[in-house]
Amino acid sequence: MRENGMSSPLNGLQILTWFLFPYFLIGYICLVFLPLLPNLSYNLPLGIAILLTALTAVYNGYRACTLNPIDPLLKENLEAVPQIRSVGGAGKKFCWVCQVHVSDNSQHCRFCDKCVHEFDHHCAWLNTCVGSKNYKQFFKCVTLVFTFTFLELVGFTILIVRWFIEGTDSSIRSEVKSLYGGTDGLTFITITIVYYVILFVTVTMIAQLFFFHVNLKRLGISTYDYIIKEARENQKRQRERAEKGKKMREEKKLRIEAGQTLVCEPCAGGMWFGGSQIAVSLGDPSKMSSVRQEDSENDEEDHVDSNKGGEEEETLEMAAITVKEKETGL
Ligand SMILES: [Zn+2]
Ligand SMILES: [Zn+2]
């Protein structure tokens, strides 16, 4: 059983996050903050805001990662010496893996091998479950990461726009030259644009996660509830589609067996179909004949021709008269 995100086994995504924070901070300092150093009026407040939000994000991420979101009944059971016998009751359910009664709103996580109270999801980036105990820290971390990366994006946009608008007279170009050497700053701006694209993709992904959780809060449900709801709705849609298809096939089969003509619904009402095709049901259904458009070659399944011999011509004539009558309102 894993206690928190720092318990073994660690995972690759979690280790990646340890490098991403310094990467985003050092990248911003080298590519934006230092070249914009003479413009302290907006560069300094932006830099301080980024640093503070990034450090607070790291703190909340660390808290979310190291808190243990275990189910309190399971925790109590594990800590009891000698181990107490688990008793069920209202608001409880039995976990067959943990072999104890846990809270009704807990779920067993197979990665952490324990029941998590008010389970939201297992976060691969933090390598721990997110539940009632650490959801607040998790959400703060996501919000702050979104904020600081977005602010970085603003800083990068200012630098890149100024670089190209101000041209060779730009104070940024002379600052870059004194910082990193070179003559035209081509290497600098190429690296900056590549970094900007990576940052833009990162901000987009984090924004999706942030707004997803904002929406969950608005709906008052957890990620787990949302996934289950989506899966059930998908299943329902698939079942409905399958039932509809089955019903249509059965109806078609019955009509064929009964020797009835198959006409599409609009046609059955004596309406134009496809602009030119007509199929009109005339009088007594037992004597009903169909009209098949002569040039229709692809609708054989839907429009079965049950006419025989000269009846077709007669029916066509009658159908044409009926449609004409409807058109002229007679
Ligand atoms: Zn369990
Ligand atoms: Zn977990």
Automatic annotation (TrEMBL):
It comes from the Eukaryota. GO terms for molecular function: protein-cysteine S-palmitoyltransferase activity. Residues 92-228 form the Palmitoyltransferase DHHC domain. One of its GO terms (cellular component) is endoplasmic reticulum. One of its GO terms (biological process) is protein targeting to membrane. The keyword Isomerase does not apply. The chain crosses the membrane at residues 12-36, 42-62, 141-165, 185-212. It is found in: Membrane. The keyword Transferase applies. It is a multi-pass membrane protein. Residues 284-330 are annotated as: Disordered. It holds the Pfam family DHHC. It catalyses: L-cysteinyl-[protein] + hexadecanoyl-CoA = S-hexadecanoyl-L-cysteinyl-[protein] + CoA. Its EC number is 2.3.1.225. Keywords: Acyltransferase, Membrane, Transferase, Transmembrane, Transmembrane helix. The DHHC domain is required for palmitoyltransferase activity. Belongs to the DHHC palmitoyltransferase family. This is Palmitoyltransferase.
